[in-house]
């Protein structure tokens, strides 16, 4: 099966560039933006060789996994564009639900399944940019941007999913769809993802529907009500994960009863957070 857009995505003007091999789908998308591409372009591959994660980390992607980037070209506030990561998380979770047989995947407690709605989700969203399954990282999302001039900019919404394999030797548990017993391939998952993105982007509506996106995200959130430790620059903030605020920032109730709002950081749940091994 070749990569293809869902009919809903194609009808809304999305386009597709499928590559046998690519260095980085994000880098490829941003190159297109600098060359004048108008956006709504998906760049996808099953063989990404130089993928990137948050904070300059490498993203390991064995052949057969999905690397997909959506190029967005816009003139609204760049701060608002940062919430596209939450749109991406929802779209991917919806797509995974669509292609994975029910009953085959559970969410592990140690990954931050609290007592809230997230405890019932097979695929949980870990702030700000991960998708978890069975207590382990299944997918990551990375937003990168470039200024194009005249109040316009481009955002590459990168999505990497462990379909056939996951990297070893990581400081956190990781998994793949095949390890979880799913038989879905990258092409089938992308077809569902392009459809789910169109639905969630329509809900987001260039930020006008951010409150609805926030509500949906919280229903899938990992760790609400759980002990959490967040590394922010060179300090660790500990407490209970309460919610995300109207701007999708992470909100913790610390052990002194105060509220701490975090715009960026590395989140650790469960035994890692409780033991202080961050």
How would you summarize this macromolecular structure in one to three sentences?
It catalyses: biotin + L-lysyl-[protein] + ATP = N(6)-biotinyl-L-lysyl-[protein] + AMP + diphosphate + H(+). The chain has 278 residues and is an alpha+beta fold. The protein is built from 7 helices and 12 strands.
Please explain how this structure is put together.
The chain is α+β, with helices and mostly antiparallel strands. The chain is 25% helix and 29% strand. The strands form 2 sheets. It has a 7-stranded mixed sheet with strand order 1-2-3-7-6-5-4, with helices on both faces. It starts with 6 loop residues before the first helix and ends with a helix. The model is unreliable at 107-119 (pLDDT under 50). Its EC number is 6.3.4.15.
Order of helices and strands: HEHEEHHEEEEHHEEEEEH
% residues in beta strands: 25-35%
Low-confidence stretches are 107-119
Strand order of the largest sheet: 1-2-3-7-6-5-4
Mean pLDDT: 88
- Give the CA-CA distance, first to last residue: 42 Å
The overall number of domains is: 2
GO molecular function, one term: biotin--[biotin carboxyl-carrier protein] ligase activity
Pfam families: BPL_C (PF02237), BPL_LplA_LipB (PF03099)
Keywords: ATP-binding, Biotin, Ligase, Nucleotide-binding
InterPro entries: aa-tRNA-synth_II/BPL/LPL, Biotin_CoA_COase_ligase, BPL_C, BPL_LPL_catalytic, Transcriptional_repressor_C
């Amino acid at each position: 099966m070749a990569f293809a857009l869902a009919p809903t995505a194609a009808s809304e003007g999305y386009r597709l560039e499928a590559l046998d091999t690519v260095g980085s789908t994000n880098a490829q998308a941003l190159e297109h933006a600098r060359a004048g591409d108008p956006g709504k372009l998906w760049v996808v591959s099953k063989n990404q060789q130089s993928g990137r994660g948050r904070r300059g980390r490498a993203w390991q992607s064995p052949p057969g996994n999905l690397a997909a980037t959506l190029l967005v070209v816009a003139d609204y506030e760049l701060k608002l564009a940062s919430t596209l990561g939450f749109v991406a998380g929802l779209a991917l979770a919806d797509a995974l639900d669509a292609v994975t047989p029910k009953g085959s995947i559970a969410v592990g407690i140690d990954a931050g399944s609290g007592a809230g709605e997230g405890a019932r989700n097979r695929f949980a969203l870990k702030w700000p940019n991960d998708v978890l399954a069975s207590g382990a990282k299944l997918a990551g999302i990375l937003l990168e941007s470039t200024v194009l001039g005249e109040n316009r900019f481009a955002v590459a919404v990168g999505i990497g999913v462990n379909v056939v394999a996951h990297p070893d030797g990581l400081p956190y548990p990781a998994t793949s769809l095949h390890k979880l017993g799913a038989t879905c391939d990258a092409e089938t998952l992308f077809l569902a993802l392009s459809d789910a993105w169109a639905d969630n982007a329509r809900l987001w509506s260039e930020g006008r529907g951010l409150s609805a996106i926030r509500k949906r995200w919280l229903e899938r959130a990992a760790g609400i009500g759980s002990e959490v430790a967040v590394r922010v620059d060179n300090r660790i903030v500990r407490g209970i994960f309460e919610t995300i605020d109207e701007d999708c920032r992470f909100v913790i109730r610390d052990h002194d009863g105060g509220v701490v709002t975090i715009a960026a950081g590395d989140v650790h749940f469960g035994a890692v957070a409780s033991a202080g091994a961050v």
